[in-house]
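Same chain as my last thread, 411 residues:
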Amino acid sequence: MRRLINTILFSLLLLGSFAAEAQEKLDEYLQTAAENNPGLKASFNEYMAALELVPQVTSLPDPQVAFGYFIDPVETRNGPMNFKIAASQMFPWFGTLRAKGDAATEAAKAKYELFLESKAKLFNEVRSTYFNLYFTDKAIAVTNDNLELLSSLQKLAIIKVEAGMTSLVDEYRIEMEIGDLENQLALLRDKLLAQQVMFNKLLNREGQDQISLPDTLWSKGFSYTKEAIRDSILTQNHQLLSLDMQQEALQYKQEAARKEGLPKIMLGVDYTFIGKGANNLSGKDALVLPQVGITIPLYRNKYKSMINEVVYQETAKANEKLNKSNVLETVFEGGWKDFQDADRRITLNQNQAKLARMSIDLLETGYSNSGKNFEEILRMERKLLMYRLELEKARSDKQAAVSFINYLMGK
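reply #2:
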């Protein structure tokens, strides 16, 4: 008994190590996708481009420099004024540039959240394709196993036909079943090749590169409640966080729009060069004239419209976030249903496959003795195939649901 327990424990540990190794391999694929996927690179470059807007909006306007030449010099006490140079700098109202910079920074943060959203979406797509690959690969293996079972049954049927215990129809039926399975097997192999190309292209690799798949897919669920998951989605989802930051950016943009309606200050200087006069005091007393100016925003409709535009945008973003929250909650409920359904189907199909296998053993024993119940054997063979395929599909669906819910949570 102790030896049996030790064997079971060793088997469980071995399966656990295989599952851990398979998950590590999937993590490697995710890392490759993060480094190579062109769509993700495009999203990151959009974020980097948004960052470059910050120094643009926080810089002062370019200074103005003007040169003037007196065609008819104006005589002064020290001599004629020949030419002058003027330089001026416009300064927006206090805090305007800071508000614009804050708006651009929050907009860049929103872009970064969209980049993280693209990354999470890519990872979910990689995982889902990986799980589909696993199911197709296992479906091929299960179909091959069933072909071997039918081949064994075919040999038994031939013996019974030769002994005159059953009709030749039994052999024909098995050949028909084998033909159907071989056609299904060819379709699965074509499907596997297409899925391999899809998976490798997500990693931006050659379409025929080898993909490592586990013998048995791990069975990983959630360590927290449904309510905790929903709360995490509503607080950590990257789409919602991006909308929050877009709203923050609009608040700063509204502040900047108000300050745009305030006066702007201009500081400048004129430097006039004096030519040689009759008293030989050429250039001794060049004329320097400081300047101070102000723009008066008289036409208020323009600035009111700028503020109203931002207010409407803020309202639109608030409604967009509410709508997105509702959509995410609805989608989560569907994902949670799929997760629970797949979890139930794993247990169901494990039991059903076990019962079908025992039924086949009993029916084959009876058939070898009496040559009866051949149709029931074929029917049970189809049942066994269906239950084994459904078991692997349930395992794949469960992990796909886990991946999708994690994506909704921004993981």
